[in-house]
Amino acid sequence: MVRDDEVERIAVQIARDYEEARGWQVEDVQTENRGFDLISRLPHPEDAKTFTDVRFIEVKGRAGV
Questions:
Q1: Rounded distance, CA 38 to CA 30, Å?
Q2: 56: helix, coil or strand?
């Protein structure tokens, strides 16, 4: 397995699309060196400014040689 920036970008986009399809709000923090790539938050059904759950997601996208 080798690192491929394009494969990594696609993997992050797939993870983001999955979370957003579930109704979660996703923030990309890849450039902030936090140890994970995405923060995904589930909005409260009655108050869009608050969240009922938070997920910290590290995405791994690799390509075979």
A1: 7
A2: strand
